Amino acid sequence: MTTREGTRKVPYAFSYRVPDEFVRLPEADTLAGWDEALGRLMPEANEEELAAAGLQMRRFLPMLEEGGETTVLTAMCAGTEDVGGEERLSMGLLAVSARPSDHDDQLMAAEGIYRAKEQKFFAGQKEPAELDYELGKGLQGEQDMLLAVKLPGGPGVMSASLRSLTLPAGESGAAGPVIPFASLQLVVPAPYGYCAYVTIATPSVFLLDSYCMRLAHVGRTFGFDVPTGGGSAESGE
Asked: Given pLDDT bands bounded at 50, 70 and 90, which one contains residue 9?
């Protein structure tokens, strides 16, 4: 696995597939590769528009990271999708990351993650609705959905939340605009030592079901290959 300079190297070893419409993005702290990646996402854009989009993305990407994570992949999709017979803009940012954990049992780790998210999402709500699907059970409130799911790679926890996001300020120093967005996350504990995270952020909140399906696609392809003795290994996509 390739890790960012200065991060702790942990023997992460997992494989997954992301939907074909996602284009891999360069790291936020580099300049190389942005024109090519954004050119695939915005084929009609000129050089000035690509440069402006690249600057905005490099400002935005670090906002998705949390302390202690090693980012494996960031990717983006952009286009249109049919919503009730009308073509609407669809845009999503996907991140795959990993974080150390001291667990040695996948099911117990998933249970702990579920309970922590349940407290975070629903502590102030009286009666969230119960959800019961073939491959998962959980709760749904006014802004959040939480599922304990069964995946080929083991138990996991999937959540979907509606929030608002303040974009980075522009060169003028004025506060950036506040936009609604949906945050979807899948957490899959490895057999031991770490948890893998797949997060999708999208301002296309009217396409929440569509992006939930994309997240489920990644989850169905997720698998672990933990080397004997804890040596490092490559992760794939």
From this structure: low
